[in-house]
Amino acid sequence: MRNGAVLRMKSSCAPGPDDHRIHTPRWALEEAGARIGALGVRVVGDLSLLAGAPSGAHGQPGPPAPGIAPEVAAQALYGALAATAALPGAGTVRSVHRTSSRELLRVLGHRALRRMRRR
User: Fold this and answer.
1) pLDDT band at residue 78, thresholds of 50, 70 and 90?
2) Going by C-beta distance under 8 Å and a sequence separation of 6 or more, which residues neighbour residue 25?
3) Least confidently predicted of 4-13, 46-55, 58-67
4) Global pTM?
5) Which of 8-12, 62-66, 101-105 has the highest mean pLDDT?
6) What is the average pLDDT across 26-40?
7) Is the dihedral of CA 8, 11, 17, 19 positive or negative?
8) Cα separation of 53 and 79, whole Å?
9) How far is CA 55 from the centre of its chain?
């Protein structure tokens, strides 16, 4: 997923003007500010500004997002398929139609024997 669909989405898709923005909930901003402050790390800037974001900018749920645009879904699917095709051994898979009857019977026999041994 990460090296396929997500990578493709990051490199080829940009949100349009009609797309809904995903905002971080206010409770998550406050929790992040508290935990960062408790870590004792050096913070450049005012950490309290993280939790005190303007009410319209963060923490307010927007209207429910419609579905994914077909173009965006197609890009994600393409990325997942391209990553799968790039895996080692991906080109060695044969379809059933290109496999001889003898080979299919051999595979079927091995599978039947394995199932009988499990019982």
Assistant:
1) confident
2) 58, 59, 61
3) 58-67
4) 0.37
5) 101-105
6) 86
7) positive
8) 36
9) 29
What mean pLDDT do residues 43-59 have?
66
Among 15, 11, 13, smallest CA distance to 74 is for 13
Name the burial class of residue 53, with classes exposed (0-12), middle (13-18) and buried (19+) by CB atoms within 10 angstroms of its CB.
Answer: middle
**Centroid of chain to Cα 78:** 13
What single-letter amino acid sits at 15? Answer: P
| Residue position matching structure tokens 């923490």 | 59
- Joined tokens for residue 2: 């990460």
How far out from the chain centre does Cα 66 lie?
A: 19
Q: How many whole angstroms separate alpha carbon 18 and alpha carbon 71?
A: 14
CA distance 3 to 76: 11
pLDDT at position 65 over 70: no
Written as six digits, the tokens of 68 are: 């994914």
Joined together, the tokens standing for residue 71 give: 């173009």
